[in-house]
Each structure stands twice: as C-alpha cells, then as structure tokens.
Write a structure and sequence with these properties.
Layout (H helix, E strand, L loop, with lengths): L18 E4 L6 H17 L4 E6 L5 H13 L4 E7 L2 H10 L5 E4 L8 E7 L9 H12 L9 E3 L3 H10 L9 E5 L9 H5 L5 E4 L22 H9 L4 E5 L6 E4 L5 E2 L1 H12 L7 E5 L4 H9 L3 E5 L3 H10 L4 E3 L5 E3 L9 H13 L5 H5 L6 E2 L3 E4 L5 H14 L3 E3 L4 E5 L2 E7 L5 E8 L2 H23 L1
Parallel strand pairs: 2-3, 2-4, 3-6, 7-8, 7-9, 12-13
Antiparallel strand pairs: 1-5, 4-5, 9-10, 10-11, 14-15, 16-21, 17-21, 18-19, 19-20, 20-21
Length: 463
Amino acid sequence: MKYKIKKNINKYIFRGYDIRGIYKEELDEDSAYTFGKGYGTHLRKMNITKMILGCDNRISGPYLKEALVEGILSTGVDIIDIGISTTPMFYFAQIYLNTYAGIEITASHNPKDDNGFKFSYDIKGNCKGQEILDLRKEIEENNFYEGEGKLFTKDVKRPYLELIKKSINLGDKRLKVVVDPGNGTTSTIVKDVFSMFNLDTTFINDVSDGNFPNHHPDPCVESNLEQLKNKVKEINADIGVAYDGDGDRLGCITPKGIFIPTDKYMILIIRDIINKVSNKKFLYDVKCSKALSDEITRLGGIPYCYKTGNSYTKARVKELDLAFGGELSGHVYFRDRWPGFDSGIYASLRLIEILSKSDKTLDEMIEDIPKYYQTEEEKIECSDETKFKVVDLVKEYVKEQNYNYIEIDGVRVEFSDGWALVRASNTGPNLTLRFEAITNEKLLKYKNEFYQVVNKIKEIIWN
C-alpha cells in the first residue's frame, strides 16, 4: 500500500469551514489518505455511496488527490472525478449530477504552499463548525469502513458555461473589460466564458500556474490588484475584475483605478435588484461597512448582519430564502436567477450587465455611496491555541466599559459614530480586526484602543 493511516493528524488543519494547512508540513499525503478514509466512512454511515471530487490548480493538488482518492475508495464509496475545476464548477456539478456529497481540493486564496479540502455530505452545503470537529473525532478513532469503490470521470464544463450564458443578459453598450484570473484555476475557463458575450476583453495573468507567480491570489486585498489597475487605466477600460485561486471570490476596479470593496459592490447589486425581488432582506457579514446597512434601509430593504464565513453565510442565505447576500471577503450569493453558489466570474458578469445598461460609469455609480473612514481587514498573528481566548477576554473588556456590542462572530463593538471588530480567523492562526468611523480621528481612536487591548491580553496570556 502506497499510503498509510496517520494517527497524529495536525488537529489545527480542521478549521471553521474546511480543512486547510501547509502542504507537507501540516497536510501531507498520508493525512489526505486518512482523511479520505474518515470521510468515506462517514458517508457510509449516512448510507451514501457516491461523491464528487474536484481539484484546483495548486501544484500540490495531484499528490493530495491521489492519496485522498485511495482513502475514499477503500471505504467502498464511488467517486465522480470532475478533474481540474474551480470551486463554483464543483458546486455546479453537485446540482447537475444530483450528487451533493463531495470534496473540492483547494486552499482558496491562501498562499501557494497551502492546500486543503472543502467538503460536504448532502444538500445542506459545505461542512462547518461542529460538523468538522465531529469528523475529526471520527478520524482519530481510526475505525474505518472497508470496501472497493469505483472511480468515474465526468466533464461538466459545457453545461456550466451554458448556465452562465443563460443567466446573464447584457445591454447594448459594449464594454471594455480587463480580467485578471491571477494564474488561478479560473484561468482554465475564463476565456471560454467571456467569449460567449459581446465584450471587448483583455486578459492578464491568464496562464494557469499554481505557483501564482504574478501576485497573491486574493482579489479582496487591494495591493494584489496593482497590475489590474494599471492595465485598466492604460487601455481606458470600463471595469477590471479579478478572481481568487479557486474562483469563488471577486475583486473589482473602476476606470479611475479605484478598488471597490465587496460591501460597495453589494450596494450596486442591491440597488439594481431590490425592486425586482419579493424578499427584500439582504445578508451581509460583521466586517461590512455601515454604508451597506444604511443603503439597504434607505432603499426600503431589511439589513441582516451575520457571522463571517462562506459556509455560514451561503447556508443562511438559502435558509432565509434571500435573493442576494454576501460577505466582505468577496463571496456573494445570487438566488434571483442563479442557483445560489458563489462564483467570482458570475458575480463580475452581473456588475458588467448593470454597466452595459447604464449611462453612468462605474466611478459615477459609486460616487454617492455614503462615506465612512475604515481600515482594511487587519490580521494579528495569534496561535490557534490562544486566538479564541483573546477574543473572550476582549469581550470581558467591552462589558467592563459598558459598550454596546454584538457577538455573533467575535466581538463587534457598536459606537454611535462607528464600530470596532475583533474576531478569531477561521482560516489561519490570526486575529482579524477592522474599524470604521465617520471621521478619521474617531477611526484612529477606536483602532488604537483595541490594538492596545489585544496586545495587552496577548502579553498576559503568553506570560
């Protein structure tokens, strides 16, 4: 046997909504094989004997995939392999093949040396929270089913392209678009998508390369989009769009080279659809600007703040039967004429559709969005052992100060003129902080206060 059961899998790769770790150092082939045996065993306990498998374009993908497949097949579960695929293509395959158990091998927007597994058991969607901890416990028990599963292959590219084409209706205005797949997995499909529409499209960083040689594959960090900004301004494009490593997240640039955060993108979408949908409640996560909730209310909608995390927000949008929702990290979910899964390419086309029917430029569209001063999403290194303890102690501080706060995800302190957020990252050994206020002075005040609090707490814990 090429792989062996690993009895000491790093427990910290079992994160809030997926498996994720540094290849070889935290997640190796034996770990993948053992995870496959645990996952397959869990499916068998649910009387499920068939699942879908996809893989993004990371260099370590084929190695982990081979081991994972061997582990799953050894439990008697059949695999439908859809090959190299974006995560949205994987979600589509689940619907198209009516097979909701599955794994996508990906580390999303993480650095090139990371990899991992997004996985599901049934139609409820990606596993999260306690489901992941429960599977970890099952794997640690090493009591696996035995069997001989079969491996099948299926190409879902053509029907996926057809779904995108029928879900987009461009206007008469032919737009000039710059597309940056960041050498990620969307590089394998994005030209086929854009060729279906009457657009003047320029591509950069469009050769699939899991080393991501041109920039980090996270389109929601503005510094990663400098090449896109420059190309948009160089050719006087109407919009620039970028995607992350596995294609489920979006970043946008205006003709003037201005980065559009996802909460502002959501404002543009909600303005377009609010009078076309019956349910006027829209979900956003705790990291989004107050400008978004203000605008939803102004338009006659109902703002709904929820915890951060793709698995959580997507499931909640479905549970509440919402037409649209999203989170600051670039995941957005359309359910008006799209099946509800997050696709960076589809999300970009929806904004392009709006532009193609408007006399306004993208810069003009964002001009009247209320102005708040805000920080980027800032991360402080904090071990997985201590990050939740730090958040708990921040909460105690907030209570002592008699601040108003919400605790659906970490601690978001609500001031009359702004807010401060401290939460534990679900994707790495970090604390995530973000701040917003009506003036820059207030912003710095809140930021300084909570950085001091967090650093003091970390010192106390370490000492």
